[in-house]
Amino acid sequence: MFNIYKFEIKKILKTKLFIGSFVIFLLALTGIYFLSFEVSRLNDNAQQVAKSHEGDFTDEKLNQIIDDYMVKFQDERKAGTYKIENNMDVYTWFIFDNFDKNSRDRSSYVKIDEAVKSGKTLRVTDIDLKKISDLNFPKFNKPLYTSSYYGWYDLYNATSMVIMAIVIFTIILLAGIFAGDTEKNINQILLTTKYGRSKLISAKILAGFTITSGIFILANLLTYAVFLYYSSSLGWNTSIQLNFMLEVFTFPVELNQFQVYILLLLLQFTGLLAISGITLLLSSLSKASFPVLAISVGLYLLPLIFEKFNKPFLTKIGNLSPVKNQSVLELLNIQDRVFISNNFQTNLLFLMLIFISVALFSNIFVYQKEKHSYIK
């Protein structure tokens, strides 16, 4: 069995199709990393500010963060040393924007500019700020924890784009596992061999799972490594409600940014298993690889087309698909999209079980179908 399994793996990895699609896959990842990390690169100043303000997020902490931001900004403006590309404090800017009562008309910034011109220094007590309770954060046993969040926002965005590249690459490789043999008309020979209707089928299915898992793990390890290079892991323990770029202030579950990242990967992986299972099923039913590729990609992207029709039924069906559950905001809004309840944990578990069931039943169908195939 193991030797047959290794043979099936090598058969996939040694083809020109794999080499060509792998090169394109790497180019796609490079583009994603450039857009997600290099273009929006976080300067060291913002990281230092975030690190200096790590801790429980209280009204006192909020006032301290904004007061430090205002004083530093005004001092640099007065000294003529402020440059937006070097001094932009992303960490505090988004916090200030959400808690400033006058953020819409920017009147607080007008006051700061006037103070700079007159040689004065405005402090946090000179502007109108909202309280933490005004943003309706959920209450837990411990206060919410604040630290860096900007780099994690980039990681979430990159991960949601990387999964699309992984899905397409996986479909390309799996489309020919069964259909390729039929296309070359060697499936008739394989069915007559000693293990043609048992171990060979299992080996092909297992090879498909291995390829799927391997691509997913390697691509996400690479993504996380690139993230660490650009941003470091600072902020892993920040409460997800305090990622002010996501604006999920009322999210009801106590999770930090790293825990959300792990849940996102688990949801994406189970969705990928469902897609790979369907691709194998189509491959076992088809006589050629290209139709499998086209139909699998079409089915994967179909829920995005459902949105254009603006029909509640189609929207609910689309919400149960992998492509509609691969971004961090889609994950964090699962409880609002109403599957079987308005509970985050219940809906997440329900959705993952659906994906796993689709993968499992698809593989069982493939095994039984191939096992009972007839010889022409």
From TrEMBL:
GO terms for cellular component: plasma membrane. The chain crosses the membrane at residues 12-35, 155-180, 201-230, 258-281, 288-306, 348-367. It holds the Pfam family ABC2_membrane_2. Keywords: Membrane, Transmembrane, Transmembrane helix. One of its GO terms (molecular function) is ABC-type transporter activity. It comes from the Bacteria. The keyword Transmembrane applies. PANTHER family: ABC TRANSPORTER PERMEASE. This is ABC transporter permease. It comes from Floricoccus penangensis. The lineage of its organism: Bacteria, Bacillati, Bacillota, Bacilli, Lactobacillales.
